[in-house]
């Protein structure tokens, strides 16, 4: 894919190098001359320009990109870049960095954002995922489809422990996409049993999260979650 990244700081450069290592063509857009460091990511195309200016983005051929990543340290800039990428250049996928947690509510499809990555949210989710057994943890939100990536670590008391996946009545608008068992990543198949300690990874809409929780952990888990909230 051809991918444009606005912001060539540590975050932008790290993303660029990872994508290049995975075989993608990357363009880094940076407005500050002192931040232009082609030697740090020599395989990237470096562009000195203001990613908030329409003319600069036209000159950089943003319309030819499959993905735009707004990765600057300024939330206002990331929102403007996202909006321009989606509305002016019809970029199929826009990913935006959220620097301040209080601004997270702004990073929606109305601003052209398909996926918002909030460092505070991700860090909190990773902490919860590491220590929480017997509850649903939201790991990531996919804004465009209003879907979430969620994780449930099965306690021994979960209703379907030891039973094959095809017996689990997974709600509509939810899909079990992976099972993490120890150091293994398993692709679920209908006859695979689920075990205590398994980390079940679902993609589901926010509207059915309680249904997923109730099925996997039992009906009482929903009420317990509401009491904690």
UniProtKB/TrEMBL annotation:
<keyword id="KW-0633">Potassium transport</keyword>
<feature type="domain" description="RCK C-terminal">
    <location>
        <begin position="137"/>
        <end position="218"/>
    </location>
</feature>
<keyword id="KW-0520">NAD</keyword>
<dbReference type="GO" id="GO:0015079">
    <property type="term" value="F:potassium ion transmembrane transporter activity"/>
</dbReference>
<dbReference type="Pfam" id="PF02254">
    <property type="entry name" value="TrkA_N"/>
</dbReference>
<dbReference type="InterPro" id="IPR050721">
    <property type="entry name" value="Trk_Ktr_HKT_K-transport"/>
</dbReference>
<keyword id="KW-0813">Transport</keyword>
<dbReference type="InterPro" id="IPR003148">
    <property type="entry name" value="RCK_N"/>
</dbReference>
<dbReference type="InterPro" id="IPR036291">
    <property type="entry name" value="NAD(P)-bd_dom_sf"/>
</dbReference>
<dbReference type="InterPro" id="IPR036721">
    <property type="entry name" value="RCK_C_sf"/>
</dbReference>
<dbReference type="InterPro" id="IPR006036">
    <property type="entry name" value="K_uptake_TrkA"/>
</dbReference>
<keyword id="KW-0630">Potassium</keyword>
<dbReference type="InterPro" id="IPR006037">
    <property type="entry name" value="RCK_C"/>
</dbReference>
<protein>
    <recommendedName>
        <fullName>Trk system potassium uptake protein TrkA</fullName>
    </recommendedName>
</protein>
<dbReference type="Pfam" id="PF02080">
    <property type="entry name" value="TrkA_C"/>
</dbReference>
<dbReference type="GO" id="GO:0005886">
    <property type="term" value="C:plasma membrane"/>
</dbReference>
<keyword id="KW-0406">Ion transport</keyword>
<feature type="domain" description="RCK N-terminal">
    <location>
        <begin position="1"/>
        <end position="117"/>
    </location>
</feature>
